[in-house]
Amino acid sequence: MSAFLAVIARDLRLARRQGTDVAMTLAFFVVVVAMFPLGLGPTPELLARIAPAVLWVTSLLAAMLSFDRLFQQDSEDGGLDQLALSGLPLSLLALAKACAHWLTTGLPMLVLAPMLGISLNLAPQSYGVLVATLALGTPVVSLFGVVGAALVVGARRAGVLVALIVLPLLIPILIFAVSAIDAASAGLSVRVHLLFLGAILAAAIPLAPLAAGAALRQALD
Amino acid sequence: MHRFANPTRFFRLANTVLPVLAAVTAVLFASGLYYGLFDSPPDYQQGDTVRIMYVHVPAAWAAMACYATMALAGASFLIWKHILADLAARAAAPIGAGFTLIALVTGSLWGQPMWGTWWVWDARLTSVLILFFLYLGYIALVNAFDDPDRGGRAGAVLALVGAVNLPIIKFSVDWWNTLHQPASVLRMDGPSIAPEMLLPLLLMAGAYFALFGVMMILRIRSLYAGRRLRQLRLAAASE
Hints:
The complex is a heterodimer of chains A (221) and B (239). By secondary structure, chain A is mainly alpha-helical.
């Protein structure tokens, strides 16, 4: 347990000291969301209609940019071998990496998204659901991202490749999250969609670290 | 199974099977297309467009079987490290991507007259599209490493992760209310399709699976030759 927490603490410390890495991901999120009103013209009804999809798709794309810092640096400087030798099981190492990734990417997006929602004229009753879908969905993004990042350790063009691998797997998250927000905007029940998101998260927490651990084992020998 | 992990033994068997399988493929395609296009009744609602089914449905079955083959071959490569298992998984990927594309395109051509639209984002179509993306991701991943062995292992893990999509595709028409019709052949209480339509459908399914076998053998053979060539080049370069 202490090794698990130590890995999280180490990644958080690295994120704090190299603060621009995290800030760039979030800046990308904000800038891309801001492109939509500029490109579509500031029609409030249109923006309100597309706001859930824009926020979610952009948050996925921003997350894609952050996956290469999960293992790439560690593998280049030998840190990954040290972590593997530390005795911490590789699947737990992957889970720790996912936790740290979520704390530095998913959580800030959770805070930013409602503010960006205001700029997109999102319906007032949808904010709670927007935050709820992000709270349930972004941990899955981090977990799948760790699987993808572990698979591409040492690959050419790893950054593009990880997006190509992980985005199709995240389509269900996008579908349920956006339908939940749309349902809330239309005044319908959001329970089913949130339950689906919760179910995916509940399945991903044990399974994704196992897959990522297997992928890391292949990357190490 | 491990007997045929030996390439020499595998290729001896494969080379004997190949001509037979190729002949079977040709006969099944000829008879299946004849029955499907000329000697089967038109549907009472859909008319002659129902004949697209004989190309579309078996392609979708083959696409899923291909993914299952790829995932199983990947798993056995991770467990036993047989090179042929890796080659089989790599061989299956583009074939499966091809079958998936056929299923998507014919489905779209069928959807236009029947549903009035080329494409809908319902659960079945979306999950098959994800299957297509998974094939593309797999192909990109296995080829992204300088060491082919590393690529094969990473691909095997990805193939196993993506296998969660297979039951979703199969049951998507039961779990969600979709425009795509529910299963009518592989059902618990027997097929609900008319027998005179089932015959050409099964002939075409046999043809697709035989074609899958033929292409697998051809591709495994060429991938193996490529691997040998690489080894010889590396050996020559290091001398």
